[in-house]
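Quick one: co-fold with threonylcarbamoyladenylate.
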Amino acid sequence: MKTVVTSSPIEAADFIQNGGTVAFPTETVYGLGANVFDATAVAKIFEAKQRPADNPLIAHVANLAQIRELASEVNENARNFIDALFPGPLTLVLPKSDRVPLIATAGLYTIGVRMPRHELAQRFLEACGVPVVAPSANLSGRPSPTTWQAVLEDLDGRIDCILEGEATEIGLESTVVDCSSSVPMLLRQGAISLEELQAVIPETVLYQATDGEAVRSPGLKHKHYSPRASILLVEPGSEISDPRNSAYLGLGRPDGDFKKALLCTSIEIYAHVVFEFFRECDRESIDAIYCEIVPESGIGAALMDRLRRAAER
Ligand code: TXA
Ligand code: MG
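Sure, here it is.
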């Protein structure tokens, strides 16, 4: 299939209405979308990404009314998060309505719901007229795409359309919070920190998988965010013995003569560039990427989560 690249949200929405797949920008990363109520279209997402069928998708909405089409119940906790933090980089897991096909939720009776604050994403979702399920628009396992070119690199010829926008602002995926039971549970760290969630609902806890318990967020068990190069986490100022075909990404100047280095002036910028840096290193056939460890507050917690997963082999 030919992948159309367009900057028109109307043209892109047309593909969604006709059962196609469209990659679109949000403030976190680019997503690969389809009409949530069209099971055949949703199947195309899993096919294009080679995504395991047990990994559920997030539904994106243009307005609050669409949340009612997706969720059978919006409890008080969810309402409070919505009032305080929508639109934004936050996904709430809610009990799903009967209209949502089980393929979209990977067989779960809950659905992740998010309202992006990105202007072009909002115009696109508005034009689609239906909620759009979208995982990150990368081949499964690869770093999430933060530019439309990165989407093309992974999915050219595998999807119908790319809605072309700027590089994404945040660069890491949304915070995922399970609101389907009485205590809100943070399943995936993101730009909205645990502290910000607790400012809305103090009881919110960080989910920690315990042995033997079914994984609450299936996506957490899959391999993630990995470039071909190996990722090594290092404390600031560490001495690296053989940096020849290696790259360095961090806040401080590294000790060693790296083939490639990117120094960030803040943790926010580090988060913004990390996935594209991984992709660049692969294009340049770098063997190893040394990533500086950062303090785990604010977006630092989400960044460290992604770096640790990328470092797992
Ligand atoms: O920022 C983002 O969240 C981006 C943009 C496109 O919105 N999307 C994204 O989707 O990162 P994806 O599919 O790459 O990650 C979705 C995560 C996975 O870890 C998945 O397991 C979890 O959300 N998730 C989705 N639905 C869930 C549900 N019903 N229950 C528990 N976890 C769920
Ligand atoms: Mg993903």
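If it helps, The longest strand covers residues 90-95.
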